[in-house]
Design brief:
Helices cover 48% and strands 12% of the residues. The protein is an alpha/beta fold. It has a six-stranded parallel beta sheet, sandwiched between helices. β2, α6 and β3 form a beta-alpha-beta unit. The longest helix is centred in the first third of the chain and has 20 residues. The model has no long low-confidence stretch (mean pLDDT 94).
Length: 224
Amino acid sequence: MLAVFDIDGTLVDSRATILSATRTAARAMGLPEPDYEVVRGGVGLSLTEAMARLAPDLGPEEVDRYTDHYKAAFVAMHAEPGFEEPLYAGAMDLLADLKRRGWRLSLATGQSRRGVARNLARAGWADLFLSSHCAEDGPGKPDPAMLHAAIAACSARGEQTIMIGDTGHDMRMARNAGVQAQGVAWGFHTEAEQVEAGAHHVAGTFDDLARQLDAFAARQRETT
């Protein structure tokens, strides 16, 4: 079995960091600071696309500047002594348990390659994931390219693969790739938004997510 995880809002609680960096970037551009409800909608997309959605009246060059200001704010926060975006409680336990039981694990995220590398430097993460895929590698979510790449890199098949994420973008990507779309309720998009985007199920807790992964694996064993 292959479990492909999103990062922001699924494994890592980055809500405060993303909102703060976005508001800092808006001030630098002379734009109104966006509300969280506006910011959360673009999380999971490539950064440039997400920033363009926040300020649709900006031209391409201005969007690039807005994006650069966001990156600078984000890097500055991570450079502060002792700063670290927390994992959701239960995330590491689930990942370690899946790895012990023979699951193949991968990442598919709207983060930059630099952001992926920063997360893979977390204690224990480098040994967990067979591959990682991000928006800098090619088309971002909801295009299925990242999932197709993860399936190939992990020598899996589509029917053996489940995508775990917290946004409608994740669910649409999973559906576009023909894999199981598993949502989680603790991130950026609501359960209703994920279901509307095609989620087969939305887990309310990590225990619930573990049960859904077990059930998915059992169904696959029954068909092989």
